[in-house]
Automatic annotation (TrEMBL):
Family per record: Belongs to the UDP-glycosyltransferase family.
Gene: LOC104711126
Source organism phylogeny: Eukaryota, Viridiplantae, Streptophyta, Embryophyta, Tracheophyta
UniProt entry tagged with the keyword Transferase: yes
Keywords linked to the UniProt accession: Glycosyltransferase, Transferase
InterPro entries: UDP_glucos_trans (IPR002213)
Organism (species): Camelina sativa
Record has Hydrolase as a keyword: no
One matching Pfam family: UDPGT
Protein name: UDP-glycosyltransferase 76E6-like
């Protein structure tokens, strides 16, 4: 009988946040389909293995984490996690090497799980960094890693400095665009940037973006970091999107969408992490209803204090919502964005949501909460011109109503929609044989097979 060639093993190390785990598992699926074995290393929190039935053939292993679940979130947590996980990850690699001989082809780790670099070095294993954010965010991180937090704070009080260009990029990136807001103390952020920008012994970076979206940032990175960059996004278009969430999608919203007119619905979702104040939720509710457009709105449990479903809103508001809109705790977002009835996306501009919206040709209303989301919003508004930002720390119902009408009713919104559809076609072309992402993935697979 013909002897089957053994699969080479790739060890994947995601960070346990939805926006990072999902693309990492999509990458795993794509590599599995090319003949690699996949081992996913996870912590105790938000274990992906709970949805392991969607990843047949994958091995899941858990490493001990000394942090408590309540410590989760924020830059400080990330720095602590890296400081405390190195030893248990090394133990885990020892176990894997004992089980599987020396058959680990490569460790692919999330850019924020940089503790993996030490184990790769110690065991002389090849390693590759995986970035689930935009290339421009990576550029920003490299730039910030070279700055001093105190000096930066003082410099940024000068309007001239705020407008100054960062490096030689096109479209231009100004100092005020650097994603620094909303992450807590600048010193911690700069420390994290220094760690993320340090490539250690990694020999390549895989990035979930598309060359036609961020060509200049990708070239800058390749030059400055000095190792190959594989821009293989959007990963959700490469494999079937298996769920990797602890929360089930509420598919009843698809039946609701089926009853709406083409391109009439505004889809509203703030991702999996953002917290909203009760007042903002109420203003959103009034504004959405006053716009007279049908809306599908995701409100996660515990994303807003005191909100526990539509019943917890004042009676007049919940009555109004049930007439014009539909609320779910979690939606099958990619399917929703691809639905004929959806004409716009009110988003916090997380990178996955941004890519998913572009891939479906859906223009966006941007309501970013922190730096990296603001950078994505800046690209959506000023570079790709497929949406606009709602500014200000608080929004009121009037602004919500005006923004929805601007996107869904006005001529300007129709133009954004047209540009979004052009970009959608470009993304499609990049994933087809001969396209940039297709070729980059092909090269990545060849490269991993040489390891
Ligand atoms: N998502 C989803 N259903 C929801 C809300 C979010 O499927 O109801 C998915 C969405 O498709 C995206 C991810 O969760 O893939 C959110 O990632 P993103 O980077 O946009 O934001 P984050 O949650 O990291 O802030």
């Amino acid at each position: 009988m013909e002897k089957r060639e053994a699969r080479r093993r790739i060890v994947l190390v995601p960070i346990s946040a939805q926006g990072h785990v999902t693309p990492m598992l999509q990458l795993g699926k794509a590599l599995y389909s090319k003949g690699f074995s996949i081992t996913v290393v996870e912590g105790h929190f938000n274990q992906v293995s709970s949805s392991s039935q969607h990843f047949p053939g994958f091995q899941f292993v858990t490493i001990k984490e000394s942090l408590r679940e309540s410590d989760q979130g924020g830059i400080g947590f990330m720095i602590k996690l890296n400081k405390t996980s190195e030893a248990s990850f090394k133990d885990c690699i020892v176990q894997l090497l004992l089980q599987q001989g020396s058959d680990i082809a490569c460790i692919i780790y999330d850019e924020f799980m940089y503790f993996c670099g030490a184990a790769a070095k110690e065991f002389n294993l090849p390693s590759v960094i995986f970035s689930t954010e935009s290339a421009t965010n990576y550029v920003s991180c490299c730039v910030l890693s070279k700055l001093n937090a105190d000096k930066f704070s003082v410099d940024m009080e000068d309007p001239g400095m705020q407008e100054k260009m960062v490096e030689n990029l096109y479209p231009p990136l100004r100092y005020k665009d650097l994603p620094t807001s909303g992450f807590g103390p600048l010193e911690d952020l700069f420390e994290l940037c220094r760690e993320v920008a340090n490539k250690r012994t990694a020999s390549a970076v895989i990035i979930n973006t598309v060359s036609c979206l961020e060509n200049s940032s990708l070239s800058w990175l390749e030059q400055k970091i000095g190792i190959p960059m594989y821009a293989i996004g959007p990963l959700h278009n490469m494999t079937d999107s298996a769920p990797s969430s602890l929360l089930e999608d509420d598919r009843s919203c698809i039946d609701w969408l089926n009853r709406q007119k083409p391109r009439s619905v505004i889809y509203v979702s703030m991702g999996t992490v953002v917290q909203m104040e009760t007042k903002e939720v109420l203003e959103m509710a009034w504004g959405l209803c006053n716009s007279n457009q049908p809306f599908l709105w995701v409100i996660r449990p515990r994303s807003c204090p005191g909100f526990n479903g539509i019943e917890s809103l004042p009676k007049e508001v919940s009555k109004m919502i049930s007439e014009r809109g539909y609320i779910v705790k979690r939606a099958p977002q990619i399917e929703v964005l691809g639905h004929l009835a959806v004409g716009g996306f009110w988003t916090h501009c997380g990178w996955n949501s941004t890519l998913e919206s572009i891939a479906e040709g859906v223009p966006m209303i941007c309501r970013p909460f922190h730096g990296e989301q603001k950078l994505n919003a800046m690209y959506i508004e000023s570079v790709w011109r497929i949406g606009f930002q709602v500014e200000g720390s608080k929004v009121d119902r009037g602004e919500v109503e005006r923004a929805v009408k601007r996107l869904m009713v006005d001529e300007e919104g129709a133009e954004m929609q047209e540009r979004a559809l052009v970009l959608k076609e470009k993304l499609k072309a990049s994933m087809k044989s001969g396209g940039t992402s297709y070729n980059a993935f092909d090269e990545l697979v060849k490269y991993l097979k040489t390891m």
